[in-house]
Amino acid sequence: MKKTMFLLLTLIFSMALLSGCSSTGGPQDEEGAGTEMGGGSGTNTSAAGGGGAWTGSPLEDPNSPLYEKVVYFDFDTAEIRPEYVDTLRAHAEYLVNTPSACLVIEGHCDERGSREYNIALGERRADSVKRFLEAEGVSPVQLETVSYGEERPVDLGHNEEAWAKNRRAELVYQ
After folding, report:
1. How many Å is the Cα radius of gyration of the chain?
2. β-strands 70-72, 168-173 pairing
3. What is the Cα–Cα distance from 26 to 124, expressed in whole angstroms?
4. Is residue 143 exposed (0-12), middle (13-18) or buried (19+ Cβ within 10 Å)?
5. Among the four residues 32, 93, 149, 160, which has the most C-beta atoms within 10 Å?
6. Separation between Cα atoms, residue 79 and residue 82, nearest integer Å
7. Average per-residue pLDDT in the chain?
8. Are 166 and 75 in contact (CB under 8 A)?
9. Residue 72 and residue 36 in contact, taking contact as beta carbons nearer than 8 Å
10. Do residues 78 and 129 make contact, with C-beta atoms less than 8 angstroms apart?
11. Strand 103-108 with 168-173, pairing
12. pLDDT score for 135
C-alpha cells in the first residue's frame, strides 16, 4: 500500500514537472454576501508544522497549516482577511521549497449579482491570493488562476450563512 502510494505521488509530481503550470486569465466581476464565514488558520506557521509522527504529505497533515486550503472573503471584496495570512505564508513557503509543485487558485462567489460580475469578482479573489503568494517568493510559473463565479457553490442555501461559505478562493494542488 505504501509503495503504491509512493509510486502514485511520484507519478503526480513527475507529471506536474513535465507539464508545468500556466496562468490563465478570466473575465472579471460580482457576487456578495453579508456575514463573515468563520474559519481561519491554525497558529502553527511552519510549512511542515506539527504532527511529529506524520509521514505523509504535509498537505494532508491535519496538524499542518497546509491542510487549510480555503480562504474566505467578505461581501463584494477580494481583500485577504488577516486570519488567512499565516496559512497563505505556509503555502508560499511550501511552494518555494517545492519548485515542482503547482497550484491552481479557484475564485468563487455567492449567487447574488450578475453572472458576469461574479466571474470577475472570483477572478479578483484568485488574483489577490496569487499576488500574495508571489510577494512571498513563489514563482508565477507554479501558479494558475481560474474563476468559477457563482457556478460551484459549496452551500446551496439562500441565506447569509450559505453565501459566506461560497465567497472563497480554493487552493488546489496539481
Report:
1. 16
2. antiparallel
3. 9
4. buried
5. 149
6. 9
7. 80
8. no
9. yes
10. no
11. antiparallel
12. 98
> What is the pTM assigned to this prediction?
0.71
Nearest 5°: phi and psi at 121? -65, -40
64 vs 93: CA distance, rounded Å: 13
Q: Which three cell numbers mark 134?
A: 508571489
Output the 3-class SS for the chain. CHHHHHHHHHHHHHHHHHHCCCCCCCCCCCCCCCCCCCCCCCCCCCCCCCCCCCCCCHHHCCCCHHHCCEEECCCCCCCCCHHHHHHHHHHHHHHHHCCCCCEEEEEECCCCCCHHHHHHHHHHHHHHHHHHHHHCCCCHHHEEEEEEECCCCCCCCCCHHHHHHHCEEEEEEC
- Phi, then psi, of 127 in degrees rounded to 5: -65, -35
